[in-house]
Amino acid sequence: MKIDSICVRGAKDLNDRTGAVAIPIYQTATFAHPGVGESTGYDYARVQNPTREPLERLVASLENGRECCAFASGMAAMDALMWLIPPGGRMLATSDLYGGSVRLFSELAPRAGLNVEYLDTNDLELVRSRLGPDLKAVFVETPSNPMMHVTDLRALREAVGPEILIIADNTFLTPCLMRPLDLGADVAIHSGTKYLGGHNDTLAGFIVTDDQAIADRLRFITKTVGTGLAPFDSFLMIRGIKTLHLRMERAQANALRIALWLKGHPKVRKVFYPGLPEHPGHEISSRQASGFGAMISFEVDSAQTAEKALQGVKFILYAESLGGVDTLITYPILQTHSDVPQEKREELGITDRLLRLSVGVESAEDLLADLELALS
Ligand SMILES: *Cc1c(COP(=O)(O)O)cnc(C)c1O
């Protein structure tokens, strides 16, 4: 099946005898055994449940991977990742990451014996200079959050060799636009809360891999700590993914129009969107992805303009998160990246003039009219 068809029809109820078209919500915590020492394949819902299982297979096939584990949130998935790296190990990470990932890496990872160093993961010479026996993994967001830096995954794989684990956060582009495993990554990770779910109503996270040992380890973690996705939330994810391809198409068409419009606005100083030909990651994106996504960051002329814009939007919602059908505007400095130290924020360009848009699937005219009003 092509990916559009996988979105719609890729989830299969593995236990169906009714012909139900939607995957049922198996809202049960435990499962009766047919006989002593026998199992239906399900024993206790923390380990696996029959609504999560088809979702995991669906997301694995979307990412063209063999195995997928579904988690209660993107951060639960991120946390599980830390346990894949032996204590004393070092990991390189893209310098501007989702703020929650930075919080995890700085506050919790060191306690698990994992040291994270930030750099431009597309500067291959710099990456090579940091290789060493303790370097175990490279964590990449491409495009990154919120500065939209692009990393060439194939080139990164060549630069670090086959032994280093490459983990790609594919939340921004989704498998409809890019498949990191096909580009040399070992692991693709998602906040399913964003585009996969797509409706700003459910938290979820996913890890996809071809590596059986990694998948076994992740299953051991969800079984042990109970961070697997609940049946109802699994149902909502399956339902959301049915329209993923359509939403991505529409959202990125809207995003390109808005990026071009912002570029021409007198109060806008800079627009960060890989779909613009002058974006430094435009060419790499064109090679490794089939689209540029629908996330835009932009810098306005003053902090006052930024605050007025946030107060001035009437249709667009001023809210954290991204990837849903509703267009959201975010102030990274106060929201997603508030836990990143100010000095580091400044260095990255996350200033009081930076705004981030998650463009949804509404009418582009209504979105532009609202931005016009908010910036005037
Ligand atoms: C939102 C997000 C996360 C965290 O996911 P949650 O589902 O909110 O826990 C991680 N990485 C990126 C890129 C995100 O946008």
Could you walk me through the main structural features you see in this protein, from its secondary elements to its overall organization?
- The protein is of the alpha/beta class.
- The chain has two domains: 239 residues, Type I PLP-dependent aspartate aminotransferase-like (Major domain) (Aspartate Aminotransferase, domain 2), CATH 3.40.640.10; 131 residues, Aspartate Aminotransferase, domain 1, CATH 3.90.1150.
- Helices cover 36% and strands 15% of the residues.
- The chain contains 14 helices and twelve strands.
- The strands form two sheets. Strands 1-7-6-5-4-2-3 form a seven-stranded mixed β-sheet. A five-stranded mixed β-sheet has the order 8-9-12-11-10, covered by helices on one side.
- Helix 4 links the parallel strand 2 and strand 3.
- Helix 2 runs parallel beside helix 9 and helix 12 packs across helix 14.
- The protein is globular, with a radius of gyration of 21 Å.
- The model has no long low-confidence stretch (mean pLDDT 96).
- Pyridoxal-5'-phosphate binds next to helix 3 and helix 4.
Can I get a quick summary?
The chain has 376 residues and is an alpha/beta fold. It is built from 14 helices and 12 strands.
Question: How are the secondary structure elements laid out?
Answer:
Elements: H1 3-9, H2 52-62, E1 67-71, H3 74-82, E2 90-94, H4 99-108, E3 115-119, H5 124-129, E4 135-141, H6 153-160, E5 165-169, H7 174-177, E6 187-191, E7 205-209, H8 212-225, H9 231-241, H10 244-263, E8 268-272, H11 282-288, E9 295-300, H12 303-312, E10 317-318, E11 328-330, H13 342-348, E12 354-358, H14 364-375
Parallel strand pairs: 2-3, 2-4, 4-5, 5-6, 10-11
Antiparallel strand pairs: 1-7, 6-7, 8-9, 9-12, 11-12
This protein binds pyridoxal-5'-phosphate (PLP).
